[in-house]
C-alpha cells in the first residue's frame, strides 16, 4: 500500500471513531434535553394534580359549611373550585402523553360523576331552601345525602385515581432519572473507549510512519552524503512500490548515471590534461626554435642586417614571447578548479610583497600596501594568482609618468573584501563585463603585449569558490577592482 493511502485510511478510521464519539455525545445531549423537558412537564402535572386534590377538599368543605350554616357565600367557593377543576382536567388532558392519557380520562369520568352527584344534592338543597329555608331543613338534607356522597364509591375512586396518578408521576420521574444516569455513565464509558482507541490508532499510525519513513529517508540521506563525498556508485536498498520505494529507485538510477558521467568526465579531464601538456610542449618547442633561430641571426649577422630588418626581428621575438605567454595562460586557465590546494596560514601583506618582487615596476609608479592587511587560513596559490593578475594589470596598463597603486581591504562578518586601486587610464563602463572574458583586451594586440587571460583567470578562480569580483571605473578616472574572500 502506498504511504499516501496508508495515511488516508488511518486518519479516516480515526476520523470515523471521533465522529462516532461526537454522534453519541450529541444523542446523549438530546436525551438529557428530553429528560429535562419531561421533568418540567411531570412537575407541572403533579402540581396541577395537587391543586385538583385541594379543590376536591374545598368542594367538600364548602358544601358542608353551606348545609350546616345555610350561608350562600360558601356556594361561591364551591362553584369556583368546581370550575377550576374542570380547567385543570382540560389542561391535563391536552398536555397528557401516552402514559398519562388513560389515567387522566379515568379521573375526568369519575370527576364528572362526582360533580353530577354534588349538583343533584345542591339542586335538592336549593329546592328545599325555597320551600323551607330553615337551617333544620338543610341539616336534615346534609345528614341524609352528604355522608353518602363524600364517603361513597365515586368519591373513593376519584381520590384513589388522583393519588395513584401523582404517585405514578413520581415513579416515572425516578425511573427517568435512573435511566438518564445510567445512559450518561454508559455514554462516558463508550466515549472514553472510542477516544482511547482513536488515540491508540493515531499513535500506532504515527509511530509506524515515523519509523517506516524516517529509517528509509535516513538511508537515502546517507546515500546522498556518500554521493556528495564523491562515492557516486553508492546504492540504497529499497522494497515495495510506494512513494519512498520509487524515490529510492530514482536515487539509485541517478547515482548510476552520476557514476557513469563522472567516470567519463574524469577520463575526459585526464585526456584534456594530457592534451594540454602535449599541446603546450608541442607548441612551445617550435616557438623556442624560432626564437633561437632569430637570436642566432641577430648574433651572427647583427652588423649586416639593415635597421628595418632588425626592427622586424625584434617584433618577431616579441610576438614569439607573447605566444608563449598566451600558451602558459591557457594552460593555467584550464587547470583552475581541477587541483585541490592545501590550506595554510597566509599573511596577505607578505604575499603581496612576493607578488611585487616578481612584477617589475617602472620608475615613477608607486605601489602601496595597507598596513592592516589580514592573516588568512586559506589556499595560498589561488589567492596569489588573483593578486598577481590584478597588480600586474594595474602596473602594465598605467599610462601616466607618475602613478599610485594601492591595495587595501574591508572586513564583513563572513568575509574580507580586497581592493586594488590605481589612478591609471580607467575603463569605460561599457567594457566592464567584457574584460573578464578570456582573450578579451581593450588594447590593440599588435601594439600591446596582452594575452587577455589574466582577468579571466581571476574570474574563474573566484567563481570556483563562490566569491564575487566587481569593478568601479570610468574612462580617465582610474580603476578600482574589488573581490571577496571568505575568512
Automatic annotation (TrEMBL):
EC top class named in words = transferase
- Principal localization reads membrane
> Where located?
Membrane
- Is Lyase a UniProt keyword of this protein? no
Q: Mind listing the UniProt keywords for this protein, alphabetically? A: Kinase, Membrane, Phosphoprotein, Transferase, Transmembrane, Transmembrane helix
Top-rank taxon, per record: Bacteria
Q: What InterPro entries does the entry give?
A: BphY/WalK/GraS-like, CHASE3, HAMP_dom, HATPase_C_sf, HATPase_dom, His_kinase_dom, HisK_dim/P_dom, HisK_dim/P_sf
This enzyme's EC code(s)? 2.7.13.3
Under what name is this protein listed?
A: histidine kinase
Organism this protein belongs to: Flaviaesturariibacter amylovorans
Amino acid at each position: 500500500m502506498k504511504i499516501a493511502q496508508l495515511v488516508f485510511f488511518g486518519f479516516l478510521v480515526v476520523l470515523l471513531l471521533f465522529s462516532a464519539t461526537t454522534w453519541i455525545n450529541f444523542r446523549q445531549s438530546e436525551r438529557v434535553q428530553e429528560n429535562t423537558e419531561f421533568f418540567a412537564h411531570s412537575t407541572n402535572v403533579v402540581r396541577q394534580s395537587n391543586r385538583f386534590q385541594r379543590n376536591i377538599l374545598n368542594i367538600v368543605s364548602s358544601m358542608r359549611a353551606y348545609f350546616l350554616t345555610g350561608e350562600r357565600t360558601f356556594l361561591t367557593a364551591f362553584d369556583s373550585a368546581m370550575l377550576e377543576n374542570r380547567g385543570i382536567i382540560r389542561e391535563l388532558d391536552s398536555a397528557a402523553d401516552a402514559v398519562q392519557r388513560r389515567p387522566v380520562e379515568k379521573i375526568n369520568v369519575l370527576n364528572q360523576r362526582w360533580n353530577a352527584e354534588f349538583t343533584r344534592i345542591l339542586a335538592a338543597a336549593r329546592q328545599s331552601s325555597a320551600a323551607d329555608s330553615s337551617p333544620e331543613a338543610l341539616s336534615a338534607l346534609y345528614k341524609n345525602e352528604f355522608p353518602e356522597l363524600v364517603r361513597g364509591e365515586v368519591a373513593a375512586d376519584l381520590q384513589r385515581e388522583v393519588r395513584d396518578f401523582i404517585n405514578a408521576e413520581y415513579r416515572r420521574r425516578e425511573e427517568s432519572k435512573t435511566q438518564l444516569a445510567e445512559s450518561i455513565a454508559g455514554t462516558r464509558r463508550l466515549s472514553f473507549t472510542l477516544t482511547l482507541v482513536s488515540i491508540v490508532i493515531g499513535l500506532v499510525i504515527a509511530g509506524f510512519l515515523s519509523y517506516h519513513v524516517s529509517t528509509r529517508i535516513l538511508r537515502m540521506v546517507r546515500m546522498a552524503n556518500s554521493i556528495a563525498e564523491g562515492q557516486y556508485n553508492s546504492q540504497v536498498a529499497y522494497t515495495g512500490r510506494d512513494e519512498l520505494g520509487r524515490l529510492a529507485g530514482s536515487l539509485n538510477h541517478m547515482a548510476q548515471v552520476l557514476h557513469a558521467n563522472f567516470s567519463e568526465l574524469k577520463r575526459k579531464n585526464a585526456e584534456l590534461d594530457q592534451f594540454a601538456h602535449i599541446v603546450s610542449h608541442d607548441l612551445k618547442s617550435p616557438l623556442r626554435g624560432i626564437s633561437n633561430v632569430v637570436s642566432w641571426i641577430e648574433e651572427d649577422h647583427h652588423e649586416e642586417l639593415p635597421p628595418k630588418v632588425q626592427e622586424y626581428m625584434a617584433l618577431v621575438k616579441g610576438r614569439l614571447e607573447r605566444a608563449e605567454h598566451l600558451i602558459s595562460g591557457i594552460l593555467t586557465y584550464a587547470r583552475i578548479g581541477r587541483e585541490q590546494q592545501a590550506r595554510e596560514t597566509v599573511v596577505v601583506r607578505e604575499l603581496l610583497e612576493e607578488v611585487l618582487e616578481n612584477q617589475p615596476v617602472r620608475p615613477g609608479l608607486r605601489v602601496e600596501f595597507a598596513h592592516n592587511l589580514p592573516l588568512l587560513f586559506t589556499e595560498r596559490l589561488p589567492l596569489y594568482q588573483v593578486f598577481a593578475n590584478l597588480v600586474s594589470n594595474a602596473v602594465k596598463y598605467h599610462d601616466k609618468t607618475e602613478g599610485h597603486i594601492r591595495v587595501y581591504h574591508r572586513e564583513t562578518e563572513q568575509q574580507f573584501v580586497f581592493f586594488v586601486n590605481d589612478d591609471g587610464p580607467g575603463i569605460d563602463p561599457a567594457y566592464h563585463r567584457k574584460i573578464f572574458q578570456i582573450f578579451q583586451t581593450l588594447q590593440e594586440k599588435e601594439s600591446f603585449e596582452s594575452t587577455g587571460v589574466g582577468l579571466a583567470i581571476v574570474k574563474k578562480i573566484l567563481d570556483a569558490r563562490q566569491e564575487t569580483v566587481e569593478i568601479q571605473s570610468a574612462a580617465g578616472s582610474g580603476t578600482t577592482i574589488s573581490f571577496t574572500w571568505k575568512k
